[in-house]
């Protein structure tokens, strides 16, 4: 080989090395989460259903993936943070994702991705914090179903996501689509409500595939490199082990979910070995994006497995604190070690050990099979409970609790301390409560009250059942019975902020202001962030004419709330009664931004005038519409403000004009804007 040829060859190799090192264009990333979707039911449908089967055939798919918890918000938080719930601290629906927790959308946005989420149900509402990092966070509202339940079907959510994708710019896109159809109640189109549960549940999975088919077609048509992940957040009991919904127990009916990766020309289609975990999704996508992994990530990248290489996936951990928070049971945890799966509590009693690959329905408990299996169970129990325990279990606030209960989460809102019962001991009661929660209250309210009373008799020491009964009694208009039930619930669980809140609310509504005050104070002590408790405490004091105490009680809410009209209404009233006209005017001005069609500029102007703020008072008086009968009284206020500003001749001219055209307004204005009014405003009661 000549020297020139050798130089040319070296140059070509150099160019190839440069090309290999040059970063390729980041791929679009789409994550579709199928809420409440079991791996076994999905796999059976996806291999034959006309909408799902093409995706299944073209995807790299695992037999199942492991969820760390059978609850929507905690599972999605783990999905997008690569950390288990005992690390994220999000162990219940309705709580806030810590702002310090790194999330996938944040990281991808920092890498130049345009980001959007289309969410189908309230458990993932933006108020809980998973919206961080998304340019667009489109969520269900009550208008989507014409009811108070904030959810929408896949056929309504997916077109919105497609529209966004079609309008996305040249930058790489990260799209998250959350579908809620498989969550109870199962009401797919074309299947009778009288059909059996399994048929209706399967119908919902098919409905999601039908809705997603246009998205799959859109991705192909765009001719941009992409990775689409279809994954469940948790499954559904469907009667297995006596559990009909999800959240209380940790069997694979609620923990194993589908996971498919569709990336044409990137991942060869076909099955992949191993059991990935939800916490492995974010590390995989971050590696594909060329981004650094999340600090202290518990998940790993699945890219080697997706590319057909061997990959050792660490054991899957899972937990449920749903029973702890709803019923006061022991926390439940689970840990896998290859084919063994342990489920249990911190107590030695009622440990369970299964060979989950050979016994997928978990029917044969191996704990006492022999000494080796007993030792395995003890070892896995220690490993499961070596993980950190929370110092406190956060629960949703009152409004979040109400909305979650409308979606069937019977324990939403409770923050019980741990008892010594195993969740299995309450599965029958829980099943009855689940069925009770699904009764149509408009047509079966009497039946629901009767069943709740029967449940109280069956389990008199479970506070949450009394919570359900009290709520039903209030709906039925039986306030006296509800009051008594709430009082017993508080006595059974004095550390539950939600029970104190509901009792105090009922007392306030019944005019028993004095009796409500200790319960508002209890809520403040147990849940300091629930600002409405401070407002309602102040309202109770105001109703008792204890104005200065009311003003003091209101301050924590007033300091943090700028958009709550109830707090601002209370502030305006109490400030005026305690001779704080400037504070009253400020509250009304904040209200003006919330209710622009109902602003009382005459009242705001008078308060500003009483506070000596003549310049702003004049501006407020002049904003009173000419069409209002109070316009001439406002003119008298403007005259008073002009006089404060030293413009006496202008003030006299305005008063004279009002006296000529409206003597009654002139007389009223003289009284409203007199020196005596100023003196009275500055004088304490």
UniProtKB/TrEMBL annotation:
Record GO terms (molecular function): arylsulfatase activity
- Membrane-crossing residue ranges in chain numbering: none
UniProt xrefs under InterPro entries: Alkaline_phosphatase_core_sf (IPR017850), Sulfatase (IPR050738), Sulfatase_N (IPR000917), TPR-like_helical_dom_sf (IPR011990)
Domain Sulfatase N-terminal, chain residue ranges per copy: 29-291
| Chain spans, region Disordered | 646-670
Top-level taxon: Bacteria
Question: Into which family does the record put it?
Answer: Belongs to the sulfatase family.
Matching entries from PANTHER family are given as: ARYLSULFATASE, ARYLSULFATASE FAMILY MEMBER
Protein name listed in UniProt: Sulfatase N-terminal domain-containing protein
**Native organism:** Ahniella affigens
């Amino acid at each position: 080989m000549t020297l020139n040829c050798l130089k040319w060859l070296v140059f070509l190799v150099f160019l190839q090395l440069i090309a290999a090192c040059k970063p390729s264009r980041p791929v679009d990333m789409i994550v579709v989460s199928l809420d409440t979707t079991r791996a076994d039911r999905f796999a059976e449908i996806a291999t034959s259903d006309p909408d799902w089967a093409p995706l299944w055939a073209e995807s790299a798919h695992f037999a199942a993936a492991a969820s760390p918890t059978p609850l929507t918000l905690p599972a999605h938080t783990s999905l997008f943070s690569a950390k288990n719930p005992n690390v994220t601290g999000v162990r219940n629906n309705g709580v806030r994702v810590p702002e310090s927790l790194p999330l996938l959308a944040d990281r991808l946005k920092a890498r130049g991705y345009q980001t959007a989420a289309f969410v189908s149900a309230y458990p993932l509402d933006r108020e809980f914090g998973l919206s961080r990092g998304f340019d667009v966070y489109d969520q269900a509202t009550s208008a989507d179903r014409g009811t108070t339940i904030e959810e929408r079907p896949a056929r309504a959510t997916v077109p919105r996501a497609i529209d966004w994708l079609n309008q996305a710019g040249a930058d790489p896109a990260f799209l998250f689509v959350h579908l809620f159809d498989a969550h109870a109640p199962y009401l797919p189109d074309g299947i009778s409500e009288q059909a059996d549960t399994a048929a209706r549940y399967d119908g919902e999975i098919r409905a999601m595939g039908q809705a997603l088919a246009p998205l799959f077609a859109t991705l192909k048509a765009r001719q941009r490199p992409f990775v689409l992940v279809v994954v469940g957040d948790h499954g559904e009991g469907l009667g297995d082990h006596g559990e009909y919904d999800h959240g209380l127990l940790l069997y694979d009916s609620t923990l194993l979910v589908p996971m498919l990766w569709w990336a044409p020309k990137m991942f060869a289609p076909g099955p992949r070995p191993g059991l990935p975990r939800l916490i492995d999704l974010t590390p995989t996508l971050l590696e594909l994006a060329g981004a650094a992994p999340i600090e202290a990530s518990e998940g790993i990248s699945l890219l080697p497995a997706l590319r057909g290489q061997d990959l050792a996936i660490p054991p899957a951990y899972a937990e449920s604190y749903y029973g702890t928070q709803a019923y006061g049971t022991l926390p439940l945890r689970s840990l896998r070690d290859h084919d063994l799966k342990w489920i249990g509590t911190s107590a030695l009693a009622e440990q369970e050990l299964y060979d989950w690959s050979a016994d997928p329905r978990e029917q044969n408990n191996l704990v006492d099979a022999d000494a080796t299996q007993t030792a395995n169970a003890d070892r896995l129990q220690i490993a499961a409970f070596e993980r950190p325990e929370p110092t406190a279990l956060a629960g949703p606030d009152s409004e979040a609790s109400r909305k979650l209960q409308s979606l069937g989460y019977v324990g939403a809102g409770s923050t019980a301390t741990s008892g010594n019962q195993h969740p299995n001991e309450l599965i029958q009661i829980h099943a009855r409560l689940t069925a009770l929660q699904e009764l149509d209250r408009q047509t079966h309210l009497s039946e629901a009250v009767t069943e709740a009373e029967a449940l109280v008799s069956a389990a008199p020491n479970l506070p949450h059942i009394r919570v359900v009964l009290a709520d039903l009694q209030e709906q039925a208009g039986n306030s006296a019975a509800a009051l008594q039930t709430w009082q017993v619930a508080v006595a059974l669980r004095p550390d539950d902020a939600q029970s104190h809140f509901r009792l105090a609310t009922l007392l306030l509504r019944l005019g028993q202001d004095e009796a409500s005050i200790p319960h508002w104070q209890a809520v403040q002590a147990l849940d300091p962030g629930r600002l409405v408790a401070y407002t309602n405490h102040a309202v109770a004091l105001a109703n008792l004419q204890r104005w200065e105490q009311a003003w003091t009680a209101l301050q924590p809410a007033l300091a943090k709330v700028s958009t709550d009209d109830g707090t601002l209404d209370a502030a305006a009233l109490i400030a005026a009664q305690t001779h704080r006209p400037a504070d009253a005017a400020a509250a009304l001005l904040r209200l003006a931004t919330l209710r622009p069609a109902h602003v009382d500029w005459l009242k705001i102007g008078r308060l500003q005038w009483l506070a000596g703020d003549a310049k702003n008072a004049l501006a407020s008086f002049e904003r009173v519409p000419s069409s209002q009968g109070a316009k001439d009284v406002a003119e008298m206020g403007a005259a008073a403000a002009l006089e404060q500003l030293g413009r006496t001749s202008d003030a006299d001219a305005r008063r004279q004009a009002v006296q000529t055209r409206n003597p009654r307004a002139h007389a009223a204005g003289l009284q409203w804007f007199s020196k005596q009014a100023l003196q009275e405003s500055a004088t304490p009661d």
